[in-house]
Amino acid sequence: MNDIKKQRRKLEKQLTEASSYQQWLDIAKQLDELEGTLSWREESGCELLHEKLIREHIDAMVHCRNKGDTRGLTRVLQESLYRHLGEIANPDLYAVAWTGTKYLVTEFLDEVERSMDFICDHKMPGVTDQQKLRLFRDAERVYGRPALMLSGGAAFGVYHIGVTRALWQQGLLPDVIAGSSMGAIVAGAICTRNNPELERFFNEPGEIHLDAFRWLEPDRIWRKRHAMDQSQLLHHIHTNIGSTSFREAAEHSGRTLNISVSPTRTRQKPRLLNSLASPEVLVDSAILASCAVPGIYPPVTLQARDNDRGKNGKKPYMPTERWIDGSVHGDLPLMRMARLHNVNRTIVSQANPHVLPFISHHHDRGAGASAKQAAASILHAQVATALELTRDRWSSGILRPLLEQAHAMATQTYLGDINVQFPFRPLLYRKVLANPSRKDLEMFIRLGEQATWPRLPMIRDQTRISRTFSNCIARLEKACAANDKAPE
């Protein structure tokens, strides 16, 4: 028994030192074998899954495919997805083994993908390619798609680069990405680059401009009522992202960027800026506003593209309003993302320093971790209640806006369906408002990758059908375009 514990500790240490996903996966397989969880993956029986019904649906899909019955296959698929999606999305299925969940889930998803591809690529009696394309688009709209949300976090937010790079390398980076504060900078860097540019961004991080923070002199801090030089931050944003509108960014990258900003007036609602709701707003001004932490940076007036003044023209957007850090009221704009982009699965990369102590044990297993989670939840609830009571007592006065902001930060949701979180390391907090060195950059990126690798099996499985929809629709669009060009 002691030998097994020593070997487990050795392998867990090796996991934290892995330099690539393949290396991490090889070590994780050894851990699963040592802990006996590979056998759990192989056993189909599980109280979390309706094994018999899943087997029946797999057999029915295979039967329809072998007969070439595309209509029958469509009916089986609709029933299967409706019946089993809730089961296979259960996070408990991914809390046992390091390398993934039950092989039965993989087998089911394999057959769903084969069946969707079969319907896409084979004739359906009485249905043209254009009609089939509409059917797939309608089905995708009903099913939904995944989105990646990058939290704030000041310098800790650099770790989002590691998270997104790990997803990119596995072909799992969603096309819909949201960010607030530092997460907005990383989201902006990704969603303003096309695929070749993004590949260079991830493969050559040494080109990233790192000097975002510049403290003001004490007398200027006193006069201006904020601590850092906003012009330096804007220079950092321009160097890494440039100046482009949300519409221009979407057209260039093929991705949908979303940036959270919070109002300075309590009667205004937080906004989610993107190519649908605010296409002409300039991304750099939105990011600047989303980084405007009260007391650190001043509020920002958003800017929009002014086409009457030429390609680089700009003008104030909602000039009577000023905006601050998106993390204050909407670090993770879950409901707004769901409504605007039909999001059915949220992947959250969380690096907010004030949030990490409360969620640092969220993924840990065992009685000790459960006790820590309970203690953190109780403390979080007490903080929120105290702020609410204090806010209600100060119905007016200079402290009221600050209390409103503190209460909003304490009561909002900071987790999604699938969560990747920055490790809680108190010694790193001294770096939270400092420009990272090149060594720090490598460290933060590696932390992001290592935090993402254990979530990849769950992310891969729970976004697989959405990715298959996208692939099928792309093929059907190509087929329809070819038919339109074909001579009559």
TrEMBL record:
Gene3D superfamilies: Cytosolic phospholipase A2 catalytic domain (3.40.1090.10). The chain crosses the membrane at residues 142-162. SUPFAM superfamilies: FabD/lysophospholipase-like. GO terms for biological process: lipid catabolic process. InterPro entries: Acyl_Trfase/lysoPLipase, NTE, PNPLA_dom, Triacylglycerol_lipase_N. Pfam families: DUF3336, Patatin. The keyword Transmembrane applies. GO terms for molecular function: triacylglycerol lipase activity. This is DUF3336 domain-containing protein. The lineage of its organism: Bacteria, Pseudomonadati, Pseudomonadota, Gammaproteobacteria, Pseudomonadales.
